[in-house]
What we know:
Blueprint: E1 48-49, E2 57-61, E3 93-98, E4 102-106, E5 109-113, E6 116-122, H1 129-146, E7 149-159, E8 164-172, E9 175-183, E10 187-193, H2 203-217, E11 218-219
Antiparallel strand pairs: 1-11, 2-3, 3-6, 4-5, 6-10, 7-8, 8-9, 9-10
Amino acid sequence: xxxxxxxxxxxxxxxxxxxxxxxxxxxxxxxxxxxxxxxxxxxxxxxxxxxxxxxxxxxxxxxxxxxxxxxxxxxxxxxxxxxxxxxxxxxxxxxxxxxxxxxxxxxxxxxxxxxxxxxxxxxxxxxxxxxxxxxxxxxxxxxxxxxxxxxxxxxxxxxxxxxxxxxxxxxxxxxxxxxxxxxxxxxxxxxxxxxxxxxxxxxxxxxxxxxxxxxxxxxxxxxx
Length: 224
């Protein structure tokens, strides 16, 4: 069990990430490229997770120096039966900071947090990404609800040629979060959006940024 707000002491570590360039709006102007269905499996599988270029943000590997603790941090759960290409490691996490930092405050303490944190798992094959996404989404959200992360409103699903995406607004440790899960034939991931101005990130905006992150992060060639 992790200690709640266990990373507060490490908040100053976010200084290693330079302030992002561009406007606070980031890539809001980018719309999600919706499609009627996911494109056919090309057989491409992923060996590395790149740090993607996200407009208006600075991204790096790791959790950005912050985690909620008490098992409130999002992951990919419910993927039993899928053969992973590699085990979950710190390198499978990426976080992105916007030009204007987000601060969470509670009980006289405050912490600087990323705009978004991600976790990605890569597999030998995800035969049915849509069905698998539903399984992972349901299992993870139910699991997290048991630790106190409570859903708000209804989830929303999206399909593009590259990914299937499902997002849900929720409240974690009193803070309004928006969480998007995504999947394709070789990977499943989750993107957790922290609240700018104390409000949930709109689901459509979160889905578009989730798509941009995943497409930019997945690499079929090793960089090591």
